[in-house]
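Q: What residues go here?
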């Protein structure tokens, strides 16, 4: 997978104010794909709850085993598990440089928990970038990715959960004035170009 060349990374002066950014979008919208590019560009910590949960499962921890049951059924992992994972991760040193939340929050209670976590640390949430992609293209992408949670029935359930539990976050963040929405249907580099414009305008 192509990532941003190092020459695209920001200079130390540009990095002086750490940013906290959320990537929001349906399954397969490209949150992980774009987060890898933005992590390099901004040199911030990348917090992918999906990756953290998959790693916990691979490591065979009880939390990972429990999370895998939900993930493999196309369901969201319970809020208390996911928030616990994020709380632990936020204590790590690299988060001081700024954070990119990839796939978190995915429910209103998670968004409220994130608000509290950031308020406790007296740091703002700078931007929420929503990636919009048509459902037919999402299905195409997920089927060709072929992860264990990417079979047609599981994909249908993931979309159902997205519409019911995650989509309300568009309104949640819109009313807070931090939401930016883009169509994320071009090539990964084209989509990243749009994201970079939003980031550069916000700095
Ligand atoms: P995630 O790991 O977050 O994954 P995702 O939503 O399926 O995909 P993403 O949007 O990151 O797409 P990707 O870049 O891979 O979540 C997995 C599961 O973990 C969830 O279903 C849930 O069970 C659990 N979970 C995670 N966070 C949670 C939370 N906060 N609360 C509760 N549960 C949680 O791209 C998809 C494919 O498209 C790839 O093959 C990619 O190469 C391709 N692609 C991407 N962009 C493209 C482009 N522009 N053009 C062509 N192909 C593209």
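A:
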């Amino acid at each position: 997978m192509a990532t941003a060349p190092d020459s695209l990374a920001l200079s130390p002066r540009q990095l002086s104010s750490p940013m906290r950014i959320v990537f929001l979008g349906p399954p397969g919208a490209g949150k992980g794909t774009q987060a890898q590019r933005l992590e390099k560009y901004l040199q911030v910590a990348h917090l992918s709850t999906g990756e953290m949960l998959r790693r916990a499962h691979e490591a065979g921890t009880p939390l990972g085993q429990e999370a895998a049951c939900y993930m493999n059924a196309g369901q969201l992992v319970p809020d208390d598990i996911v928030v616990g994972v994020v709380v632990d991760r936020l204590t790590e040193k690299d988060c001081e440089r700024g954070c990119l939340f990839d796939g978190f929050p995915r429910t209103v209670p998670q968004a409220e928990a994130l608000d509290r976590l950031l308020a406790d640390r007296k740091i703002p949430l700078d931007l929420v970038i929503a990636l919009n992609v048509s459902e037919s293209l999402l299905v195409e992408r997920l089927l060709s990715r072929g992860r264990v949670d990417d079979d047609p029935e599981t994909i249908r359930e993931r979309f159902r959960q997205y519409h019911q539990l995650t989509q309300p976050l568009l309104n949640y963040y819109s009313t807070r004035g931090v939401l930016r929405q883009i169509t994320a249907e071009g090539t990964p580099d084209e989509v990243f170009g749009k994201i970079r414009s939003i980031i550069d305008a916000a700095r």
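A: Context that may help when evaluating the design: The longest strand covers residues 127-132. The pocket of BIS(adenosine)-5'-tetraphosphate is lined by residues 25, 27-33, 49-50, 53, 70-71, 76-77, 82, 103-106, 110, 141, 145, 149, 158, 187-188, 191 (CB under 6 Å).
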